[in-house]
Amino acid sequence: MDGSMSKDGMDRFRHLLDDEAIEMLSQGSDAMTKCTVGELEEGRIVTMDLEVLDIAGTRKFNYKNGGEGSFRKLVLGDGSDSITMTLWNQQASVIEDKDLAIGDMVRCTCVQKRVSKYGPELALCTGGSIVKK
């Protein structure tokens, strides 16, 4: 058994799972492997131990519907390379909640590399977390 959930099993529980969870379960135990920034593949969900290299201030923006949002960027690295992580709205509170500072080591669980018009970045998936080590 490779650790993945069968199609029948996923069909039975589909109403309880979001698309990210279904994708992770279909990938099996490899979906939550540890890797380095240099080994990251776009879209693969992983757990990573990283160092906080930089923390940007909060930036605010307006949604098209008139609401206001905010984000903060972290630069994280592991010696092989570095990557930016954007934390949106409530996600950004992890910086103060965990008292994160430059030089801290963090475990990022359930994250994936995405490539946007701004370049590659690490995204926190639904249910993911950042924990200070």
Structure write-up:
This protein has 133 residues and is of the alpha+beta class. It folds into 2 domains: 1-31, no CATH class; 35-132, OB fold (Dihydrolipoamide Acetyltransferase, E2P), CATH 2.40.50. It is built from 3 helices and 7 strands. The chain has helices at 7-13, 19-27, 94-97; strands at residues 33-34, 45-55, 59-62, 68-77, 82-88, 105-116, 119-132. Strands 2-4-5-7-6 form a 5-stranded mixed beta barrel. Strand 3 (59-62) and strand 4 (68-77) form a beta hairpin. The longest helix has 9 residues, at 19-27. The chain is globular. The chain starts with 6 loop residues before the first helix and ends with a strand. The model has no long low-confidence stretch (mean pLDDT 83).
CATH topology of the largest domain: OB fold (Dihydrolipoamide Acetyltransferase, E2P)
Report the average pLDDT across residues: 83
Strand content: over 45%
Count of separate structural domains? 2
Q: Write the CATH architecture name of the largest domain.
A: Beta Barrel
CATH superfamily of the largest domain: Nucleic acid-binding proteins
Largest sheet report: 5 strands, mixed, barrel
Total beta-strand segments: 7
Pairing-aware structural class of the strands and helices? alpha+beta
Distance between the termini: 32 Å
- Low-confidence spans: none
